[in-house]
Amino acid sequence: MPDMQTYWSTIATAAPEMYLTAAICAILLIDVFAGGARRPRLTGTLTLLALVGLAWVAVDFGSVAVRTTLFDGLYVADPLALVLKLSGLLFTAIALLYSGPALARRGIAGGEYYVLALTALLGIFVLASAGNLLSLYIGVELLALSLYAMIAFDRESPVSTEAAMKYFVLGSLASGMLLYGISLVYGLTGTLDLGEVAQRLTVEPSLGMIVGVAFVVVAVAFKFGAAPFHMWVPDVYHGAPTAVTLFVSTAPKFAYFALAYRLLSQALAGVSPTWTVMIAILAVASLAVGNLFAIAQANLKRMLAYSAIANVGFILLGFTTGTAAGYQAALYYTIVYVLMTLGSFGVILLASRRGFEADDLDDYKGLAARDPLLAVGMLMLMFSTAGVPPFVGFWAKLAIFESLWEAGSLVLVVIAAIASVIGAFYYIRVVKLMYFDDAPAQPRGEAGASLRFVLGLNALAALVLGLVPGVLIDICRNVLG
Amino acid sequence: MQGFGILSLLVWLPIAGGIAVLALGDRRVALARWLALAVALATVAITIPLWMGFDRGTAEFQFVERLPWITAFNSWYHLGVDGISLPLIVLTAVMTVPVIIAAWTVIEKRPAQYYAAFLIMAGLMIGVFAAIDGLLFYFFWEAMLIPMFLIIGVWGGPRRVYATIKFFLYTFLGSVLMLVALIYLYVQGGDYSLRALHELPLTLVEQRWIFLAFLAAFAVKVPMWPVHTWLPDAHVEAPTGGSVILAAIMLKMGGYGFLRFSLPITPDASRELDWLMIALSLIAVVYISFVALVQTDMKKLIAYSSIAHMGFVTLGSFVAWDIVAATGSLHGAGMGLDGAMVQMVSHGLISGAMFLCVGVMYDRVHSREISAYGGVINTMPKFAGFMVLFSLANSGLPGTSGFVGEFLVIIASFKANFWYAFLVATILILGAAYTLWLVKRVVYGPVANEHVAQMQDLNGRELIVLGSLAVGVLVLGVWPAPLLEVMQSSIHHLVEQMTTSKLPL
Prior knowledge:
Chain A is mainly α.
């Protein structure tokens, strides 16, 4: 049937999302019917296989040379979307690799967990390819609802359910803000299509548009966890089981990047002076709040949560420039940050064992003597996050500094520089605990050799990408050129 | 242009060796030790063809390697040496050997990691001196903080954690400001290569800010008064090897930074602010010498002495314009820079040797307090001989390397202004005072207590270490010509750069 084929060729670019949806349904069904004690393991393996297939589909169908729109502009395929999707996919897969055994140890391993991770990934995909305010919103909600459920996954734990509840209430509020902002933008431009919004913006924004932009910015800030909309971050990071935190704190960042980029940098590019100021205030507030509060934390997960707020400040600094170089730097920073965060939470998982979460900073005293390889991995990740060469975190900060300088924002450069010095303190404090302090003898974490191998690769990636940073930087430059 | 070569080997051989030592681990410590020594010696051996093959007649960078690194930032893996960096590279390679030997049986806690840290440090420090791309320079410059942070923190004294975090944050803050300046230069010129940075035209206002940003990084490293306070803490708490590398090499990076970045990139700002640099240098020499006098801790005393001696380096570097103004010729300006360079190499040997001497005593008595010693010469005559020799060199005795650098700087500052010379020459008195007083209290006199009475004289290992450094100090003191000859063209070129204004006429 030639007709069918013609039709398929017009929508083939969206094959990754279709494949993923089908895979989610299939895995959910298999999980229900293929019972037995081995159920979570089977689902986990199937999920990883599905992700491998998804990577192939995404590259084969989703890679387009030029920006392509489908479904009347609801769906956009461009190189940026592909990079965001592949990053989200890769880091979701690694997160699932890390978290499987940890969930089993806590006795909460269930097939639903994998399905929820996949629906979250679908949300990331939809957001990455959103070409319309509606598809954008669907992506946000799909992702958010999956995350709420994942955080509450340990039903027995009051801390987890409390964290999920907090996230849900505040998240709903943020969704409302987003919807309200979107409705104002729609009302003033008369279109939901992001491209058309960009065309219909007046040079001098009306008061209504400024209010709409403000609501959108607040929603973006909430999703990213930027100060002063960061209240949920420490509680969620701390309250959720580490295996879930690992996922919540990493792959969704790509979706939020897409949200910020599609909404602010593309659709609202015409009024960028309005929102760059707001973003700059949020960025500086995040750097201050994140770095200062992180120093006071005694819990590693909470410390990493505040560190996340500070790092989001750096990502937002890239957006404040309103230039392609700034967005490239922000994308690079996001990828690098997610890589390092994944490793850091991976270390917590590897150091933990049944009945011992290893999430207090003091639990890391003397880790170098107890488990030298794990300590070296954490050392590399901490120095990388602090932005010390030869690790990749240095280049991420450098890219941000450079884009700020090119935009001529001297004040922001200096603030960022000082923030990175303050930040260095609490990262090297973890190294201090591991290497300089002695601790009473404790058993090592229970993690198996394969997980340790994954962590090794993760830490090594931080080093190799630091020694040879060109490839990843070039990718980020090309997709946002 | 050129591919990998001898400089890459110098940078990466110690690093690869360090990783190999790390992999051997503490279980096969004897093997790790010998491997570390072999790598350190091999690194020294590689510097020999570098030194021999170096063309003394040109100021161009030699042994250049240039490979694409980060095309997005137009940054290259670009290595090369000239007369300023070559002596410091050789010094780095040479000083790593005694550090390894000195630790031979002394370091009991995680020895393999200790050797590995120093080998990796050596590679990174050679990278700092060999990099002629601004970003690559910064890459090595910062990376070096990690092993040093661990060396002080793991193997240091009782207050090691405080000292090492202070060290890290102090230097990190200074370095970040330098990075900000470097990126600004790149945004202006679109190139990180050192030669391009040297030639980049800059207004006086730009130069002033960039100079201050560089100053933040280099002044902390040198360290100059008043940002020197991390050094006594770090030195005192660091293990012997850490102190040696800190004093012998890491402080030189600050001096090198002034010669390589501040003077050629911001000549007009350097000229405008030379009064500040001269004032800070003189304060370092005079005030810090007085501070050294009252120390009761041997390592602290030598640390303060280092700050005072590094004051000569910064003075020699920045006194040039006053000389030109006073004499009208460029010749004298070069003399100050010559002195600064010789002083760096010489201080590297002498301060390293002094810290090794303290280490030798510390290993036996486990105290750094001057009052814990007395009459060491009675139980350790060989050691006393070396200690006296290095102390005399530290106070600038003619015939030792300490004299050459100080003398050149004093003569140069005499040409500039009598009072500079007068003030800086006080080190000949003050330096002699604190060093010889130290010797008097520690080495001479009757045996102070039973600990001293039980001290064993130098063993063969220590004899080799101190002996070879003594030879270096004496040879350089009697016959500094080969060193001056290597530097000549580059110093001449630097004088031209710093006296050529970048401002539009």
